[in-house]
Design a protein that fits this description.
Number of domains of chain A: 3
CATH topology of the largest domain in chain A: Rossmann fold
Oligomer: homodimer
Strand content of chain A: 15-25%
Structural class of chain A: alpha/beta
Number of helices of chain A: 12
Distance between the termini of chain A: 63 Å
Largest sheet of chain A: 6 strands, parallel
CATH architecture of the largest domain in chain A: 3-Layer(aba) Sandwich
Strand order of the largest sheet of chain A: 2-1-3-4-5-11
Shape of chain A: elongated
Number of strands of chain A: 12
CATH class of the largest domain in chain A: Alpha Beta
CATH superfamily of the largest domain in chain A: Response regulator
Amino acid sequence: MKPKIQDVAKVAGVSPTTVSRVLNDRGYISSKTKEKVFAAMEEINYVPNDLARSLYNKRSYLIGVIVPSTSHPFFGELVAHIEKICNEKGYKVLLCNSLHEADKEKKYWEMLHRNQVDGVIVVTYNRGLVDKQQQFPAVAIDHYLSENIPVVSSDNFQGGEIASKELLEAGCRKIIHINGDANLETPANNRQYAYEKVMQEAGRTPETYHVPDVAFLESNIDIIKQLFRDHPDVDGIFASDDLLAIRTLQYAESLGYRVPDDLKIIGYDGTNLIRSLYPNLTTIIQPTYQIAAYAVNTLLQEIDGELLAVKEKTLPVSIWLGKTTGHAS
Amino acid sequence: MKPKIQDVAKVAGVSPTTVSRVLNDRGYISSKTKEKVFAAMEEINYVPNDLARSLYNKRSYLIGVIVPSTSHPFFGELVAHIEKICNEKGYKVLLCNSLHEADKEKKYWEMLHRNQVDGVIVVTYNRGLVDKQQQFPAVAIDHYLSENIPVVSSDNFQGGEIASKELLEAGCRKIIHINGDANLETPANNRQYAYEKVMQEAGRTPETYHVPDVAFLESNIDIIKQLFRDHPDVDGIFASDDLLAIRTLQYAESLGYRVPDDLKIIGYDGTNLIRSLYPNLTTIIQPTYQIAAYAVNTLLQEIDGELLAVKEKTLPVSIWLGKTTGHAS
C-alpha cells in the first residue's frame, strides 16, 4: 500500500490538514511541526502526489512551450535551456512542435488552455493566434501576439547592423540579404531594416531575397539559385539563419565561388552546435540562454500575478568571427 | 461565465451523464444523441476540460520523454518525431533533458511517476534507473532498463558492419573506431562488436578509442588528438556519432590530412540536419522516425494494458554515401 497523507499525519502526530499545509507551504506552521512532518514522510516513504497538489494549489506546474521544431538547432537549444530553467524552478515543460503551421499553433494554443497549464511560452510566426482580450499567462519569443503578452527577443536591429557593417568593412561591393517570409510580423524583420539602413547610409541599393521558411532547408534552395542567377556578381551575403548561410555557401562553392575570396557570407543564430560544426562560419550569436531565462522568469511573474514593469525586452547580440568574411579566426 | 457540462446537457436536452459519456466515448450512445450533444457544445462554445477528463478516465494523456538533450541533432529530431506522433494520438509530451546525468535521470523518472503521466519513453545511458520489480508503462530507446521494459533500437550491429566494410572496401589499411563511454550497457556497443568482428575476419587488429560522451563535443577533442598522436598512419575512422566524425575530420584537416585521399571517415546517425549541412559526410542513417513510431505505439499498447508480443525491437539502418569514404555522391 502506498502511504497516504493520513499515514503521515498519524506518524507525525498532527492533523492531515497540517500535513497538507506543510506540503503546499500555506498558512503558518512552526518549524518544529514542519520537521516532524518531513521526518514522518521520510520514515514511511511518502511521495507527494503532484496531481493532488496541483488541484489544491490550482496550479499544474506545467508550462506549455510552442516552437516550430526541436529538430532546428536554434529551437532545440532554446527548448533545452527553457526546460532546464523550468526544472530548476519546479515546473515541467509540455512540448509542442508547431512545424510553422498556423492550424497546429492554434490547436496547441487551445489545447494548452484546456489542459490548464499555468502558462505558455510561444515562438510563433503566424498571425491571429491570440484573441486580443485573452488574459492568460504567456510570453512570446520574437513575435508580437497582442498588447497583453510580453515579448522577448534578441536585438535583431543590432544584429542586422553588425552583420551588414562586417560585410561592408570586409570590402564587399554587392551585398545581398536573405531573410524569411516577408509577410510575418516578427522582430526578425528588424535584421532586414538594419541591413537596408546600413546599405543606404553607405550609398548602396539594398536587395533582399525572401525564402519560404528560414527553418526548413529544402524549400529554400530555389530562392538561393535565383539569387545567383540574378546577381552573379554578388560578393557579400547576409543570411538571417545559419542553416541558410551554410546552404548558400555550399551552393556558391558548387558554382565555383571561393569563400571568402570571391564571396563573403555571414549567418545568424550562432548556436553552440553550429559554432562547433562550422567554426569557420562568421555569424551573429543570439543569446539563447538569456532569452530562455528571461522568458521563463517573466512567465513565472505573470503566473504569480505580479505586474510586469517591462512588456518588451530586447537582449544584445554578438558576432562570432569565423573565416567566411575574411577574418582570420 | 465559461459554459459547463450542465449547460451543454440543458441545450441538448439530455442528462449531464450522457454528455459526459459522449465526451469520454463510454457506453452506448446513439449517433443522433451524439450529434445533438456536439451541436450543443458548438452552440454554447463549450471547451472540454482535459484535467477533468483525465480524472474521470484515470488518464493524464501525458507521456514523459527523457532524453539527454534536444540540443543534440539526433535527440532534437527524435523528440520532434515522438511529439508529432503523440499529438496525432491525443497525447502530450512532457519533455525532460537529463544531460546524461544519472541523478537528473533518476529525479525525472520519479517526478514523472509522481506526476502521473501515463507512461515514459526514456533514452538513458546510466545504470540503476529502474527498480527491477517496477511495473509502469515505459519504453526504453537504445538501452536495457529491466526485463519488464521493452527496448527499441536501430540495428547497431548491422550499422557497425556496414560502416567497417565500407572502409575496408575503400582500401583503408589502418581502421580505427571511436565510440562513447565503454562502461555503459547500451545496444550502441554492438557497433563496436561488429567493427571488431569485421576487422578480425579481415585479419586486422581492431582498436577502439572511447570518448567521455558522444553527445557533447568539447570533452572529446583530447581523445581525438590522442588517436592521431598514437596512430599518425590511420587512414580509416569509423565514428559512432556524426558530430564526433565531423570534429575528427576538422582536426585531421588541421593536421594536414586530406579527406578522403589520406583518410576516410564514416559517421553515425545521419539526421536530416547533418545530411543537409554536411552532405559530403558518409554516415549510417538511423531510422529516427521509425524508432519514434515504434516507441510511441508500444507505449500506448502498454498503457491500454495489452500484452506485448515483442520485448525487443531492432530496426534496420542504411548508409548515406557522401564523399568522405571516397565514393562520388
